[in-house]
Inverse folding.
């Protein structure tokens, strides 16, 4: 590897707009042709009279219908697979759904391209094959584990698959192995800073940490600066989602002003979530993405539900791929706590299984001493006892059932019938007290 070059893929990263448009057009046509092999797209497009021949310019993307998470779940698990199943070598699925999870499968080439794109991101953040990269993401279905691992290996760095949790062990690894870069979700980076402090270690002077890759959950600019200051690192925002393979979709350059979305791999649209019409660059809307180089499971016009905007104008770093602003929220009711995606419906489904409970509940998410907490308040049913030990038992059972469903342990508070606010119209099920993202 040429460690001195500014870019990992100079030709691709600094391609002129015109060349990028041509590349995207060619790849979009290929993608549609390939997608026709998947039962879901094949049947749908034939019915609508659509094919690769319907595409003359990039604007023709708008002729194609959107793909949604509901489509993935309805055609679970393999209805959107466009290749021979023998070519599939990996399956990932996402958290945060009731019923069927969303499944994404990959060919060998898909994994290689993903790793390469991830290495490009890391290189952009200044990491080289001389770095020691420690990954604190869970290894398993969550793409932050293997996605980062393969990317760091593709870069040639020594990679420590520390996986999630056990902060004392994480710190020992950082000290003993000379970790220079850490991958963490922002809430965990804050937690780690606390554990450093509790143990009297100053990460700014007592470790070799210089770089932090943070993503997978919303965070404010203030949170980023706080993390940087506490750990003595430069923190780069990283956007990705399992449906788009995982991390490595968009990533910050040293300017730390928006994330370059890799347009050789993804076609981006920003739409008004109500009218579904495109909004001009610079305006916030829902991001819609089309994969441009995925073999096993191309996705066309996938509604991410993430709210962001395209930052107009060129970036001083010289990369020509357009930048998106930090994610500002969602157009659905999914919320993310400690990197875990949760829908209120998942919680409701569990609560409704307890016949002792009424139907009114309220979820509150808050930041308590740098720690995100979920409080679930739920009203008791008409006939339920006020026997204290029975209530404690019930509360424990609910907590356990919720943990099995959402993978995190919420605080559960049982309240009397009528104690929670009754909303007029659409029930308010979630109050998020965490800092708002500007
Ligand atoms: O979170 C993939 C990932 C892993 C990204 C590691 C970055 C680092 P999912 O679990 O499918 O995939 O969750 C995807 O998380 O639609 C956003 O709502 C949110 N999200 C991801 N990155 C960011 C970010 C991974 N940098 C969902 N800022 C997405 C804010 C983010 N939200």
């Amino acid at each position: 590897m040429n460690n001195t070059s500014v870019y990992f893929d100079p030709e691709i990263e600094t391609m002129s707009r015109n060349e990028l448009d041509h590349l995207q057009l060619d790849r979009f046509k290929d993608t549609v042709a390939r997608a026709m092999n998947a039962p879901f797209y094949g049947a749908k497009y034939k019915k609508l009279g659509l094919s690769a021949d319907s595409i003359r310019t990039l604007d023709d993307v708008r002729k194609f219908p959107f793909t949604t998470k509901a489509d993935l779940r309805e055609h679970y698990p393999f209805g959107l697979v466009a290749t021979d199943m023998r070519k599939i070598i990996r399956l990932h699925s996402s958290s945060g759904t009731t019923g069927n999870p969303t499944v994404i499968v990959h060919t060998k080439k898909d994994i290689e391209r993903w790793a390469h794109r991830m290495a490009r991101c890391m290189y952009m953040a200044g990491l080289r094959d001389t770095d020691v990269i420690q990954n604190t993401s869970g290894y398993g279905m969550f793409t932050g584990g293997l996605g980062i691992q393969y990317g760091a290996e593709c870069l040639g760095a020594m990679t420590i698959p520390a996986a999630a949790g056990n902060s004392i062990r994480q710190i020992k690894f950082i000290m003993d192995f000379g970790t220079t870069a850490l991958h963490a979700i922002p809430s965990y980076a804050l937690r780690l800073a606390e554990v450093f402090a509790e143990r009297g270690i100053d990460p700014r002077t007592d470790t070799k940490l210089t770089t932090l890759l943070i993503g997978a959950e919303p965070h404010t600019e203030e949170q980023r600066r706080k993390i940087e200051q506490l750990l003595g690192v430069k923190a780069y925002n990283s956007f990705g989602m399992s449906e788009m393979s995982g991390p490595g979709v968009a990533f910050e350059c040293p300017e730390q002003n928006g994330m370059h979305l890799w347009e050789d791999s993804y076609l981006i649209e920003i739409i008004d979530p109500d009218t579904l019409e495109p909004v001009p660059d610079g305006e916030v809307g829902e991001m819609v993405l089309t994969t441009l180089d995925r073999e096993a499971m191309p996705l066309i016009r996938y509604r991410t539900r993430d709210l962001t905007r395209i930052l107009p104008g060129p970036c001083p770093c010289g990369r020509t791929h357009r930048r998106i602003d930090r994610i500002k929220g969602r157009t659905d009711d999914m919320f993310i706590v400690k990197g875990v995606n949760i829908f209120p419906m998942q919680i409701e489904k569990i609560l409704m299984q307890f016949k002792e409970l009424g139907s009114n509940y309220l979820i509150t998410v808050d930041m308590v001493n740098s720690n995100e907490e979920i409080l679930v308040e739920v009203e008791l049913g008409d006939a339920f006892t006020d026997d204290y030990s029975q209530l404690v038992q019930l509360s424990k059972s609910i907590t356990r059932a919720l943990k099995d469903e959402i993978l995190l342990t919420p605080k559960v508070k049982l309240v009397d019938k009528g104690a929670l606010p009754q909303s007029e119209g659409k029930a308010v099920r979630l109050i998020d007290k965490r800092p708002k993202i500007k």
